[in-house]
Specification:
Structural class: alpha/beta
Shape: elongated
Number of helices: 18
Strand order of the largest sheet: 8-7-6-1-2-5-14
Largest sheet: 7 strands, mixed
Helix content: 25-40%
CATH class of the largest domain: Alpha Beta
């Protein structure tokens, strides 16, 4: 038995934020019914690189789910969702605020039908506040949350993190909220609404930015590969053109690092015994480490740093990840067999539970692959299902 076996989840929405949260629950045994529009399905099916007409990303985002294809603009489809909601534990949606309300599926109505229902709502700006009706995507949320301002070399244009990190952070906050609400429901017997905004999930991870501004008027600026206020930690170029990332900011680690690079004068300097003093001389420290790094290639530098237990690493590409033995040993990479018999490597299941781990059980579904079985589960007959399909309310690819 997986930890969430028996949990019934309805997923409404598309692309990343809501579906990633539902995927996480499905990996640990939840029965996730993904509702997507007829014929076209979730837009993620056509994002980035396609295999046989479908994104390979889809195999990650929608594994372990069942697909119910409904035209939610039609009243009969909305009735089906209400019927599903009466028996569900969780409903996840990431539409713009007001969309559910326009379909007669607002939380008040759903909770009246099922007081135990937990509803996760993820949107750009949340369900309240002056910006709530604005469209919001992860790229905007990452900027509003404070992240984009810091992702640059000093004086250069801030760059985007190369993935939709704002959506994923909101998803993970949503999963945490669901698990908290489920725990509370054991006591009260009642469900509730979880309201997550993309920007505030990013902001929640911004560490000391706000208290530093509040106390000192300090506006942290972009610092490239360094981490302001913590030293030494940076990326240093080696003789072969590669970079080694070094985190020598622990007091004892710093001493070992300085001895390794032949700068025991710095390691024994009383002013550099703690982080506060090292920050004041970070330029000098970075220059010393950088000069050492240029005397060897990346592999040699990493071997030397490992030998004295200084945290260090290289900058991984996905090719590095795919060929790394530690990733393999930890089952961070798993292989699935596609319907055509070909194999595809996908990220493994996280987090790792010792006694009741999650697993990849089924491939991501085709559009409406499970429409008939799901409709039968809520009491519809074959004749009724056929009529719904004829009228375009329901769909099976």
């Amino acid at each position: 038995m997986e930890p969430l076996s028996g949990l019934k989840v309805i997923e409404m929405g598309q692309l990343i934020a809501g579906p990633f949260a539902a995927k996480t629950l499905a990996d640990f045994g939840a029965d996730v019914v993904k509702i997507e529009p007829p014929k076209v399905g979730d837009a993620l099916r056509k994002w980035r690189l396609l295999k046989d007409g479908t994104s390979v990303w889809w195999q990650v985002q929608s594994r372990n789910k069942r697909s119910l294809s409904l035209d939610l603009r039609q009243a009969e489809a909305q009735d089906i969702v209400r019927k599903l909601a009466t028996e569900a534990d969780v409903l996840i949606e990431n539409f713009r605020p007001g969309t559910l309300e326009g379909w007669g599926l607002d939380p008040d109505r759903l909770l009246a039908l099922n007081p135990k229902l937990i509803i996760l709502r993820i949107s750009g700006y949340g369900q309240t506040g002056p910006y709530k009706d604005k469209p919001g995507f992860g790229v905007v949320a990452e900027a509003m949350g404070g992240l984009r301002h810091l992702t640059a070399e000093p004086g250069r244009v801030p760059v985007r993190v190369g993935i939709s990190i704002g959506d994923t952070l909101a998803s993970l906050h949503g999963v945490i909220g669901i698990l908290m609400a489920l725990q509370e429901r054991h006591r009260s017997g009642k469900g509730q609404v979880i309201d997550i905004a993309l920007y505030e999930a990013v902001f929640n991870c911004m560490e000391s930015l706000l208290p530093e501004y509040s106390a000192f008027g300090e506006v942290r600026q972009a610092a490239g590969s360094a981490l302001p206020g913590i030293a030494p930690t940076n990326a240093y170029q080696c003789a072969d053109g590669g970079y080694v990332l070094v985190a020598g900011n622990g007091d004892s680690i710093f001493k070992r690092l300085m001895k390794l690079i032949g700068r025991e004068d710095l390691g024994n300097d009383p002013q550099l015994e703690n982080n506060e003093g090292r920050v004041q001389r970070v330029v000098e420290l970075d220059a010393a480490i950088g000069q050492w790094a240029k005397t060897m290639n990346t592999d040699q530098a990493l071997t030397a740093l490992d030998s004295v237990a200084v945290p260090a690493g290289r900058i991984y590409t996905i090719a590095d990840i795919a060929n790394d033995p530690h990733y393999r040993a930890r089952e961070n990479i798993q292989t699935i067999q596609m319907q055509d018999g070909s194999q595809l490597e996908v990220p493994g299941v996280l987090p790792k539970l010792s006694r009741t781990p999650g697993s990849i059980k089924t491939l991501a579904p085709t559009i409406g692959q499970n429409t008939d079985e799901i409709l039968k589960e809520i009491g519809l007959s074959d004749v009724q299902i056929a009529h719904l399909k004829e009228r375009g309310v329901a769909f099976t690819q």
